[in-house]
Amino acid sequence: ACATYNGYYKFRSLISDSKPYESFQPGLRASPFVRSALSRTLVELISLAISVMNGCTSCVNGHVETIKGGHLANPDAAVDEAVRISGVVAALAAWDHA
Question: Is the pTM of this model over 0.85?
Answer without folding.
Answer: no
